[in-house]
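Backbone-to-sequence.
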């Protein structure tokens, strides 16, 4: 998901590129950070949505089981069969939602959301380091200033 961010960071930190490319890489890195933050937010929202669906489905399962039990107590066979059918449907849906939710809400530190959040949080510092490693005059203007010793010797 964050390959673009990682590639942009590596390219900016490892490459000895002309100044114009550094600005372009820094811009791409900032865009990648924004995309990463949006993706993390969307993952969290999807997880919250799944949790809400799961809670509702568990409630519907409990209701169907309760109705079936009550119908069995009054010996209403038709209502008992209908309640069992609905309970089976809700039980299956609960299983699907739990499987959907389990990889997203892992307690392990390597859970995708944790990794993505960490990468998105550390990226701005990487961008600053990448642009700071270049002389400020080159980063801002794309060419050396006349005050640079190399520029003075060429003009002389």
């Amino acid at each position: 998901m964050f390959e673009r961010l990682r590639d942009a960071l590596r390219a900016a930190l490892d490459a000895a590129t002309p100044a114009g490319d550094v600005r372009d890489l820094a811009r791409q890195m900032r865009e990648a950070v924004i995309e990463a933050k949006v993706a993390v937010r969307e993952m969290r929202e999807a997880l919250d949505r799944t949790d809400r669906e799961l809670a509702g489905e568990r409630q519907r399962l409990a209701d169907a089981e309760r109705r079936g039990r009550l119908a069995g107590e009054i010996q209403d066979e038709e209502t008992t069969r209908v309640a069992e059918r609905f309970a089976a449907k809700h039980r299956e849906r609960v299983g699907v939602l739990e499987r959907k939710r389990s990889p997203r809400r892992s307690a392990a530190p390597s859970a995708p959301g944790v990794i993505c959040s960490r990468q998105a949080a550390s990226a701005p510092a990487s961008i600053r380091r990448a642009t700071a490693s270049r002389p400020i005059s080159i980063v801002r203007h794309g060419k050396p200033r006349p005050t640079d010793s190399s520029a003075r010797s060429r003009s002389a």
